[in-house]
Structure formats: C-alpha cells, structure tokens
Amino acid sequence: MTTARDIMTKGTECIGAQEPVIKAAKMMTELSVGALPICGSDDKLKGMLTDRDIVVKVLGQGKNPQQVTAGELTQGEAVTIGADDDVAEILRTMASHQVRRLPVIDGHRLVGMVALADVARALPDPKAGELLEALSSD
User: I need a labelling partner for 66 at 20 to 30 A (CA). Which of 9, 15, 72, 130 fits?
Assistant: First the structure.
C-alpha cells in the first residue's frame, strides 16, 4: 500500500501566520513553489497560501503586501491528509475538495506536501486520468 509518506515532498517550509505576504512571495520565488502552508506560533497548520491568493486578494485589491499578513488570507480549516493515509484516500480528498496539493500531517505536525503530480506518478495511468478529470470538473 502506497501512503502519503511514500510519495510526499519532505521538508515543506511554512510561512508564519504573522509574517507579511511579501515574505511569502519571496519564499515562493526562492523555493520555486506556488503555495505555502501557513503555520501559527504553535507550529500547527492554519491554512494554505497560494500565489493566486497574493495576486487576487492583495495586489488586485490594491493592498500593501508588506502590511497584509499571511494569516489574514487563511480561509477556514486547511484540507490535509495523514502521513499514513493511502493513495485512494489522497484521491478522494483531492477530488472532493477540488485541490491539487495537500499538506501531509503526522499527528499535528506538518511533515510534507503531496501534489497532484506526486499522486499521478504513483498511480497506474487510468487512475491518474480519473483524478485529473475529477479535479478539472466544476
């Protein structure tokens, strides 16, 4: 059984909830990623921040990215997957929440990230196609 732990990218970095969005943008650039987990001072996952969030909710609304914090852009509880959950559960979670990346949690600690590409590589071709179709539908 292939688990999230087997296919995840380890060493995922968080942006602190109190950090300015400009710092998140710089981190995304340095790490070549389009999303960062937002972690609180208690090291618990608070949400996800995407490059699109920065463009639409900060820049597009004329807000100053040096003054808006990452935590201000969190929306509800983050969708996550457990480190020992299998690929079928990852598929169900991605499809039901229409997300392309999932933070991987072990207990309450962030241990990695599973992206759509990670899942697709771990699946036989027909299952990967089903996932892409599910995520692409409205």
Answer: 9
